[in-house]
Amino acid sequence: MTQPATVLRPHAEQEFAHELAAIAAVDERERPPSWRLSPWAVVTYVLGGTLSDGTVITPKYVGQRRLVEIAVATLATDRALLLLGVPGTAKTWLSEHLAAAISLDSTLLVQGTAGTTEEQLRYGWNYARLLAEGPSPAALVPSPVYRAMERGSIVRVEELTRMSGDVQDALVTVLSEKTLPLPELGGEVQAVPGFNLIATANDRDRGVNDLSAALRRRFNTVVLPLPADAEEEVAIVERRVAELGVALRLPSVPASDQEIRRVVTVFRELRSGATADGRVSLKVPSGSLSTAEAISVVTNGVALAAHFGNGTLSAADVAAGIIGAVVKDPVHDSVAWREYLEAVVRDRAGWDDFYEACRAL
Length: 361
What we know:
The protein is of the alpha/beta class and 361 residues long. It has helices at residues 12-15, 17-26, 39-47, 65-75, 91-103, 118-121, 127-133, 144-151, 165-168, 171-177, 213-216, 230-247, 257-272, 291-308, 315-326, 332-345, 352-360; strands at residues 49-50, 56-57, 80-84, 109-111, 123-125, 140-142, 154-158, 179-182, 187-190, 196-201, 219-223. The N and C termini lie far apart (47 Å).
């Protein structure tokens, strides 16, 4: 797959094509049918490392190695993979990189929403040809799931629980029989070796539809946790902010370690309901306050500092983003934020500038 001259967000297999090629060149381990890399090489690509020829592979996901190994081993079997976790635990990010490493194509994607239809999971029709010719292979419009079955590739279904239960259950036959019936044509599509499905889901957001027992049994579930400690979360935010700054071509602004730690500290304390030292209990806001949101807050702060500040990330640059991330519910969250600001931030040593910046907003 060739990369366009300029795109806002390259697919994983485009952005890291050199790493995938380098790993493939030294990968002598056995590969499952249709896989571009061996399971060991897929884990190396995702978690990073140094190859035998000295090539350094950057980590794409920071987390427990065993969880990634379980996910990759699942995809090497006939079981589908469900990545489960609260918003912001890098489920989509991990699914994209797994698909890129295994199939060299992360674009076979169904985005789950309340409006997703069964046709988007199975197949649709070119209605002009359908009316002119009747049901025929030429009139059929294959879904990403259909194409993945034909190619022996990985297909991704994001936010599976956003779909209604009736739509979700369209996957039951695909996952159990590895077959997609085509009753209009009197036939079926049978998956070729290498086909599998990665789904992501969370149970925190509104609008979630529980998976049926029949569908859940077709998945092996891997629960992705939030970063274990503040240092790990700070490292993730620093790396992703730097990567986004390059991708978005933001003017160079040093991402202050102090401000990143403040954002991470605020998010961790509010989502846990207590300060880091455990001395003060806090109201928990309605939002997830995930690592992904922390990355967004700091990136927005970098843009403010670059275009409207003095070129250095300051407390004032991140304050507005933090308030916007915390206060989702104007009633409950506003109370939780004000109590946190007055009971914790006001008296915390070295946080005077952050307190004043938040109060000013």
